[in-house]
Amino acid sequence: MTSTRATVDHYERLAASHDHNWTHSGVFLDWMTSQIVSAASIGATDRVADVGSGTGLFARHIADQVHPAQPILCVDTSRPMLTQIPTSPEPQPVVAPAEEMAEWVTAGGGAGTAGELDVILLKESVHTR
Ligand SMILES: C[S@@+](CC[C@H](N)C(=O)[O-])C[C@H]1O[C@@H](n2cnc3c(N)ncnc32)[C@H](O)[C@@H]1O
């Protein structure tokens, strides 16, 4: 999951159409979200990071299903993807590469809150070369 210039450029081009491509089926979104919540056993007290979250489309649906006590952290290298996340009340965008997660989670860095994560979600964000 190395963040290259080509990857960042690729998602900058796709950002505007990303949600449109996925939201053609609300049934699919609900189903996929339920699968994620069930597979990762996500509960309301869990602190969740969605790494490579894109627009936070699934993080938002997870929040709707789980009602987490703390905002889901949406971590992504692509600012154009993250800027599509509604400003309130959640999730919380973090512009950062996955490779630096250990540093900013420990330090509180871009996330604004230090501490442990209970769930780290990577959905279609691992790229191979
Ligand atoms: C195909 S999109 C998936 C978005 C979202 N997970 C979903 O399923 O709707 C892949 C996302 O991973 C991000 N990404 C790729 N490499 C990354 C890295 N090293 N660190 C953080 N984000 C990365 C991209 O910017 C892009 O937004």
From TrEMBL:
The keyword Methyltransferase applies. InterPro entries: SAM-dependent_MTases_sf. This is Class I SAM-dependent methyltransferase. GO terms for biological process: methylation. SUPFAM superfamilies: S-adenosyl-L-methionine-dependent methyltransferases. It comes from the Bacteria. GO terms for molecular function: methyltransferase activity. It comes from Cryptosporangium phraense. Keywords: Methyltransferase, Transferase. The keyword Translocase does not apply.
